[in-house]
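Run log, item B.
One chain of 220 residues. Sequence copied directly from the ordering sheet:
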Amino acid sequence: MKKISISLRLWGDYACFTRPEMKVERVSYDVITPSAARGVLEAIYWKPQIRWCIDRIHVLAPIRFMNIRRNEVASKIAANAPRKSMKDGKGRLGIYADEDRQQRAAMVLRNVHYVVGAHFELLDHSEHPNKHYEMFKRRVEKGQHFQQPYLGCREFACDYEWQDPFEIPNCPESLQGQKDLGYMLHDIDFGEDCIPRFFRAVMNDGIIEVPPFHGNEVLS
């Protein structure tokens, strides 16, 4: 079946694509991760009959970091707490931010601008791909989404618009040439006990080619 590709322009004032090796303080990757890009597409158009796949990422703005401090809660509800409360008939399941707040430093990106190239795979082969393509394009052009797309963290809202793949602007001069960004999170393998998988992100003239999720270049 013919693969139907789309291009979507994303931008925002701030973004944070957290590196998983940073346990306490948030530190962002240099650019958007494929999993974060997939999340934006699913926020605009998700159906159980399709699965979004990211093909490439065009970086259209210089990579700029800034340090901020964010209010976060210090704890989380244990997975077995609801079961124990139901058994005992009592217990405290809520977390009150005013009582459990703490400040943490974060290194985030600012003034980000990307074009994401992607396609979708049909999980239900009785469906016609053109139907999903047209529905997605229509929703993008009308600014419709199921939930507000965001850039890594929910407070960093993402703007988007349809992008003609033949009219993608060139990257800034600072991104020209080849830049090795190291290993980057590709996505989570939800079929294998939620195992994170990584790939070596190499940016050539602002473009990162994303390997297939089950390809040999993707490691766990």
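Observations after the first pass:
- The first strand starts at residue 5 and ends at 15.
- DSSP finds three helices and eleven strands in the chain.
Flagged for discussion on Thursday.
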